[in-house]
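Appendix B, Record 12. Input sequence as logged:
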Amino acid sequence: MFKRILAGLALGVLVLSCTTAFSADEKCTCECQCNTNTVAVQKFPVFKRLTLGNQKDYQHYKGALKFGGFLVGGYAEELLNRVAYAQIPYALDLVVLSVSDLGFTQNTRLDAIYAKAKERGLQLCPAEVGPALRLAYPDQPYGEWLTIAMEPITDSSGDPDVFRVDRGYGDRWLYASDGGPGSVWRAGNRFVFVSPRK
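Logged structural output:
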């Protein structure tokens, strides 16, 4: 089942234990015990600037995907019907990172992958990124599949799923993959994250 294939994004981080924001040349003046061990901010290339909100609901996305010649897996279609879609268009910068890009060398749980990405300043994607990226990426290379780093959506079987954008055997697919926190991913698996815009 495509959904259960473990599929196989773009970071920057400043780690602080207090909530006070200050620039690199300032010192924290708060009374809490601040962790001064900071991680140098890293910039990763933007994979794609994607606009959400162009399609307002499930029916619009379903029609647009069909018109564009994209295929949608059964569980992915369930997810499409459960996404909270943006009603006002706005843009996101997306980055793609593999599990190994995040510093892992072995099979890694999804919750650890998400935690490391957030630690480095990345954000999870709104679920709408799945179908929106599928529409905006018709020239996806053969053999590539990208898993959307997102909060999972529960399918009709009660399982947590995330979107996956694939191109294989000439077809361009929107699939669903296991999005449970304990699901395990290989070092070469690649995820799409949001890079906060300055």
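Confidence is low (pLDDT under 50) at residues 1-41.
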